[in-house]
Amino acid sequence: FDSGAADVKISVKEDAAIGTKVFSTPSAAITAAANNLDSLMLEFSLVEGGSNGHFDIDRDTGSIYTTSTLDWELISSYALRVFAKSLAQPCLSGFLDVIISVEDVNDNAPTFLASDYNAIIREGQPVGERVLQVEAEDADGSSVLTYSIPQQQGNIPFAIDRSTGVITTTQVLNYEDADKYVFKVLVSDGQYTATTVVTVQVT
């Protein structure tokens, strides 16, 4: 600790349990101070950022702990200022600014922008003709979404781009064979999934 303020940057996952230790007072700072005192006793407190209800500090050790659950989607970083003072003479004191970055974890399911999608396509179009695009979103910033058409839905003459959600034909459609196709599309973020219904009318 210095008489001025220095910065320490740390990170913690948003699913950290309440009571998780996220910071310990640098031992080098205590050792340096102890060399100048016969008996070192320090008292720590949070003078900024402690009122947010998410962190608290051990007054004796200077360790900072979580006191509530974190949510990256709501708050992605916190700025705390730790104040330390010696209880012996001469009275020394200093500040330390602690920047806590919350790391995103996959704790939200993706959702489609629409509960169902509809498209119309003329018969006789070439294979690979674009039909429509389905879109989904995920509150988790680090999630990668993958689209697919689940199997076991009968003869579905369509394919979907796994990355973009663009649906195209896999065969030339014939109105006399089928004038409508209804099928499900799935999106996954690697852990959670969601589905939507696509209806394609052939004219």
Structure description:
The chain has 203 residues and is mostly beta strands. Helix content is 4%, strand content 44%. The protein has one helix and 16 strands. It has one helix spanning 27-34; strands at 5-13, 21-23, 42-48, 55-57, 64-66, 77-86, 93-103, 111-112, 116-121, 130-133, 136-137, 146-148, 158-160, 166-169, 180-188, 193-202. The strands form five sheets. A four-stranded mixed sheet has the order 1-7-6-3, with no helix packed on it. A hairpin with a 4-residue loop joins β15 and β16. The termini are far apart.
Gap from first CA to last CA: 76 Å
Bulk shape:
rod-shaped
Task: Enumerate the strands of the largest sheet in spatial order, edge to edge or round the barrel.
Answer: 1-7-6-3
Structural class: mainly beta
For the CA atoms, what is the radius of gyration?
29 Å
Question: How many extended strands?
Answer: 16
**Strand content of the residues, in percent?**
35-45%
Q: List low-confidence stretches.
A: none
What's the average pLDDT? 87
